[in-house]
């Protein structure tokens, strides 16, 4: 929130660490900083640290810690969000209806992730982890494959989704030059205002991408399991 009150340009090192931005480099070139280092790196490090709970701790103790940490994160989210004091650059205000107010209340920043975004997403996931200790069956095996190769899934699905977006964009009569120009100050964004799909269709596309990614993730999971000598694979 303090960022909006600055009267001087933000240095590049601050953007690399904290803030999504586009920095002109001259000669028609720009540096697009989409994933600032500190927020996402901190979240990934936290994930690796939580791995210790599953390798050094008995299930009952681990699940208690996960449960109450998740509950604490959710409480912290509501307290900070309600006060509008700290945690997210997007303040909320009461709207004409309760539903609109809820949408504004939950409209928190993901890129880069604010403290409130992490509390609202990681908190419930920690609670889910604490309650899934006895889950078995085909769905548990299905989900576990993605859980063992999360970064691989993210990187590959990013390209799959964007290639599909480009194909859809061009099929509607747009040109590559239009897509490269982008919209709303975002270059290379192959999208046009007013075009898109209904929310139901978006969910169907999401499910299709997850199912389509399963064979690739299962292959990589098997490859990583069979090549434990390659330590770097554990980070992907």
Q: What radius of gyration results from the CA coordinates?
A: 21 Å
Number of discrete domains: 3
How far the N terminus sits from the C terminus, by CA atoms, comes to 34 Å
Numbering strands along the chain, what is their spatial order in the largest sheet? 1-2
Strand percentage = under 5%
Query: How many extended strands?
Result: 2
**Computed structural class:** mainly alpha
SSE topology string:
HEEHHHHHHHH
Number of helices: 9
The mean pLDDT is 86
The best one-word shape is globular
Helix content: 55-70%
| Low-pLDDT residue spans | 1-5
- Main beta sheet: 2 strands, antiparallel
Description of the molecule:
- The protein is mainly alpha-helical and 236 residues long.
- Helices cover 61% and strands 5% of the residues.
- A two-stranded antiparallel sheet has the order 1-2.
- 10% of the residues are buried.
Tags for this entry?
globular, mainly alpha, two-stranded antiparallel sheet, 236 residues, disordered N terminus
């Amino acid at each position: 929130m303090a960022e909006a009150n600055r009267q001087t340009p933000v240095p590049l090192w601050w953007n690399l660490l904290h803030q999504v931005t586009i920095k002109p480099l001259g000669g028609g070139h720009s540096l697009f900083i989409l994933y600032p280092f500190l927020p996402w790196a901190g979240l990934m490090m936290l994930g690796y640290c939580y791995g210790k709970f599953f390798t050094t701790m008995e299930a009952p103790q681990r699940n208690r810690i996960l449960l109450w940490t998740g509950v604490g994160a959710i409480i912290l989210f509501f307290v900070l969000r309600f006060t509008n004091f700290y945690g997210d650059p997007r303040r909320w205000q009461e709207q004409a209806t309760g539903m609109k107010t809820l949408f504004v209340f939950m409209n928190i920043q993901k890129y880069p992730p604010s403290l409130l975004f992490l509390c609202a997403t990681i908190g419930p996931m920690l609670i889910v982890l604490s309650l899934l200790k006895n889950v078995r069956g085909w769905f548990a095996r299905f989900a576990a494959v993605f859980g063992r190769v999360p970064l691989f899934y993210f990187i590959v699905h990013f390209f799959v989704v964007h290639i599909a977006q480009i194909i859809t964009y061009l099929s509607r009569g747009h040109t590559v030059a239009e897509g490269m120009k982008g919209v709303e100050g975002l270059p290379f964004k192959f999208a046009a205002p007013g075009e898109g799909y209904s929310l139901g269709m978006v969910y169907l596309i999401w499910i299709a991408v997850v199912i389509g990614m399963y064979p690739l993730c299962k292959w990589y999971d098997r490859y990583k399991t069979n090549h434990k000598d390659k330590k770097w694979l554990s980070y992907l």
